[in-house]
């Protein structure tokens, strides 16, 4: 997904009115970050604590985990047609291309693992197909595991899922090596990218049509006044939904600014930070106050995903869970690292107050969960409309990751009740969900880290 720049038209207009060079450069750092300090809304956490925790503790470990075989291969169907409108494909653009892996490069364990090591939660899409394969369950599986396998094929997952998952058995679904296809600037922006974000915000974020988003084009733009009044009035969960989407948008735009195509000649391609691009998206003046709010939403997204990681620890801690790739020593090593990361997430002192979140009375909470799920599911379908393969890949992965985080947060009771061994009746994660969850969090964690870099660059511009 890419580069929408909330409200492309007014941004252009603004640039005409306020040329960056005319602004006192000394204030540049302050203008992006002045409001992004201290306490965050809707939680009891401050930005500085997150920065220190993420940049020095979590980020390095997470990065190491994501380089492992288990986490680098993600199966995705990039050929699904857009269900909502005729997409105007940019997939021919060179920097948008995604290189799928020849399947012999994908470790055997990952390719076959989906039905061999099922208790460890691999895929359960296509239940009939799966059940057929399960008829031939490998005899080396323990009785316990085999029972678990049968258990979860019976369990209907569809009511729990927050995303429209790709059918990974479709001939169009291919493994992609995420390390070889990094998320970075692709040139996909302008009206097409804007359309994606616009339909997400306008049609899928609980917002009534008559409330205009800040910086939206056309009449009724009152500098976000009506919008923020509306946002303040809705329940904390719906506000959270909007903030998560905005945080995701901010995170993606930080990556595109941090890995901008700076030099593109026949001899060299160089990606690196582009401060101008960053300022156009996050500078307080250039964005009429929206930039710092977007950055705060990024931290909010970070906290939600961190919370989900800390909650899902019991699922991964079970002795039966394995990160199965076929390389035994690596699998053990990576599981240890995974658990270290989850314990670290759990140790974070300032998780937001969950009592105010996804709580409320039971009936209301169930209704809200259902609304959340349907909205989010629709957003995951919109990802098939992203007209650039690279952006579509990362868009799908990040929405699936966030969807998985939400599924975890809404399944707290089931996770707590999970037995140490044997079938985990109510709660399962597929390998795809696991890979998406950690890679999506890796993206947000990288964004927080990149902010430090931009802050330093802006400081030195004085
Ligand atoms: C899903 O998203 C599309 C595209 O934005 C929109 O037209 C449609 O109304 C949405 N459907 C639901 C059920 O929210
Ligand atoms: C940085 O981004 C701006 C647009 O935001 C672009 O005009 C400029 O050429 C970019 N700088 C480099 C060095 O690519
Ligand atoms: C298994 O992984 C380890 C690294 O964790 C590596 O050193 C070793 O060569 C791998 N073994 C095989 C058979 O690929």
From TrEMBL:
Co-factor(s): FAD
Keywords from the UniProt entry: Disulfide bond, Electron transport, Endoplasmic reticulum, FAD, Flavoprotein, Glycoprotein, Membrane, Oxidoreductase, Redox-active center, Signal, Transport
Residue sites binding FAD per the record: 184, 186, 197, 246, 249, 281
Localisation: Endoplasmic reticulum membrane
A Gene Ontology molecular function term of the record: thiol oxidase activity
Domain of life: Eukaryota
Pfam families: ERO1
GO terms under cellular component: endoplasmic reticulum membrane
Its membrane topology: Peripheral membrane protein
Signal peptide (from-to): 1-28
PANTHER family, A to Z: ERO1-LIKE PROTEIN ALPHA, ERO1-RELATED
Family membership: Belongs to the EROs family.
Protein name listed in UniProt: ERO1-like protein alpha
Organism of provenance: Pipra filicauda (Wire-tailed manakin)
Chain's gene name: ERO1A
């Amino acid at each position: 997904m890419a580069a929408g720049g909330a409200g492309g038209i007014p941004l252009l207009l603004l640039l005409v009115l306020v040329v960056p060079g005319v602004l006192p450069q000394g204030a540049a750092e302050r203008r992006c970050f002045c409001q992004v300090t201290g306490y965050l809304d809707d939680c009891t956490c401050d930005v500085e604590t997150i920065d220190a925790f993420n940049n020095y503790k979590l980020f390095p470990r997470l990065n190491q985990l994501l380089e492992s075989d288990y986490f680098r291969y993600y199966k995705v169907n990039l050929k699904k047609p857009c269900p909502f409108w005729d997409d105007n494909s940019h997939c021919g653009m060179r920097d948008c291309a995604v290189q799928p892996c020849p399947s012999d490069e994908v470790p055997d364990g990952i390719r076959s693992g989906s039905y061999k090591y099922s208790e460890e939660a691999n895929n359960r899409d296509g239940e009939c197909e799966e059940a057929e394969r399960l008829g031939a369950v490998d005899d080396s599986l323990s009785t316990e595991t085999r029972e678990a396998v049968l258990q979860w094929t019976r369990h209907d997952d569809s009511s729990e899922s927050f995303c429209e998952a790709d059918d990974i058995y479709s001939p169009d679904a291919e493994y992609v090596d995420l390390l070889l296809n990094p998320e970075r600037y692709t040139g996909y922006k302008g009206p097409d990218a804007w359309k994606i974000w616009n339909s997400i915000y306008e049609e899928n974020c609980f917002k009534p049509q008559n409330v205009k988003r800040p910086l939206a084009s056309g009449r009724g733009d009152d500098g976000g006044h009506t919008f923020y009044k509306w946002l303040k009035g809705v329940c904390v969960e719906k506000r959270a939904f909007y903030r998560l989407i905005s945080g995701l948008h901010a995170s993606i735009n930080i990556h595109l600014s941090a890995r901008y195509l700076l030099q593109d000649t026949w001899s060299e391609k160089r990606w690196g930070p582009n401060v101008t691009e960053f300022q156009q998206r996050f500078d307080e003046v250039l964005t009429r106050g929206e930039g710092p709010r977007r950055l705060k939403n990024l931290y909010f997204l970070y906290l939600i995903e961190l919370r989900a990681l800390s909650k899902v620890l019991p699922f991964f801690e079970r002795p039966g869970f394995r990160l199965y790739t076929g390389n035994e020593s690596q699998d053990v090593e990576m599981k240890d690292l995974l658990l270290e990361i989850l314990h670290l997430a759990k140790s974070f002192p300032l998780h937001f107050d969950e009592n105010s979140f996804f709580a409320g009375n039971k009936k209301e909470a169930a209704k809200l969960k259902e609304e959340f799920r349907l909205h989010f599911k629709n957003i995951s379908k919109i990802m098939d409309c992203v007209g650039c393969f690279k952006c579509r890949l990362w868009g799908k992965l990040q929405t699936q990751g966030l969807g998985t985080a939400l599924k975890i947060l809404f399944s707290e009771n089931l996770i707590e009740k999970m037995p140490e061994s044997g079938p985990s009746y109510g709660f399962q994660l597929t390998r795809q969900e696991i890979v998406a969850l950690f890679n999506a969090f890796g993206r947000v964690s990288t964004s927080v880290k990149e902010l430090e870099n931009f802050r330093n660059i802006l400081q030195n511009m004085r």
